Amino acid sequence: MVGPVHERLIGDLRGLPLQPEVRAFESLHRGGEELQRFRPDVLLVQLGPRPAEDIGALRLLRNLWSDVGVVLVTDLAGEIETTALAQRVGAHRLVYPDRPGELAATIEQARHGADGGRGGAFHDLAHGMADEINNPLQSVSGQLQLLHADLDPTTQRARRDQVRAALEGVQRIQATVDRLRLVTGAANGPRHREPVDLASLLQAHLAARS
């Protein structure tokens, strides 16, 4: 948290289910070195009397830390102005303490990034729904298989056909769940990252051209 944010905000942040580590900094300029050592996942900023300077500092931080989530905190009176400023720096906007219910959702969106947050949250939700469907589906499939095996093949043919049709329906649902899992896994993309020495790459490229 940076700037003169509401005194209740620290307690509300620490009370979130994630139980984040919360630190307060006086400003982006005075706490710059300590802020860099701490390297937060989410930065909540209450803009000062000269917001242009803070916006410039935020842009610099976003260039240095492309994965940090930024939230501009404002009261209800500054909502419109802060929303416009948030759009300029790719940040989220939190109206506090007027709308305390927005806190958890805003922090979660900021954790997933300015643009990819909603998509990431959607993929997580879809994957969770696939798991919720799959567990009872497996139970139903097992019960139907037992019922099909217990039916007399000669005298209860109609019921066996009904159970067989239900099993085929379960298998189609299972195939849909499997495809949903495949799509959500592929949408996350590759996660492997390595540091790149740009100076060495440039030197090698120049040497190859000479």
Ordered list of secondary-structure elements with their pairings:
Layout: H1 8-14, H2 32-38, E1 42-46, H3 51-64, E2 69-74, H4 79-89, E3 92-95, H5 103-111, H6 117-150, H7 157-187, H8 198-209
Parallel strand pairs: 1-2, 2-3
Helix pairs in contact: 6-7
Describe the protein in words.
The protein has a three-stranded parallel sheet, with helices on both faces. It has helices at residues 8-14, 32-38, 51-64, 79-89, 103-111, 117-150, 157-187, 198-209; strands at 42-46, 69-74, 92-95. Helix 3 links the parallel strand 1 and strand 2. Helix 6 packs antiparallel against helix 7 (157-187). With 210 residues, it is mainly alpha-helical. The chain is built from eight helices and three strands, in the order ααβαβαβαααα.
For the sheet with most strands, the description reads: 3 strands, parallel
* SSE run: HHEHEHEHHHH
- Which percent band covers the strand fraction? 5-15%
Strand order of the largest sheet: 1-2-3
Could you tell me the radius of gyration in angstroms? 27 Å
- How many H/I helical runs? 8
| Straight-line N-to-C gap | 51 Å
Structural class: mainly alpha
| Helix amount | 55-70%
Summed over residues and divided by their number, the pLDDT gives a mean of: 77
Low-pLDDT parts are 114-121, 188-192
- Tell me, what's the shape? elongated
DSSP strand count: 3
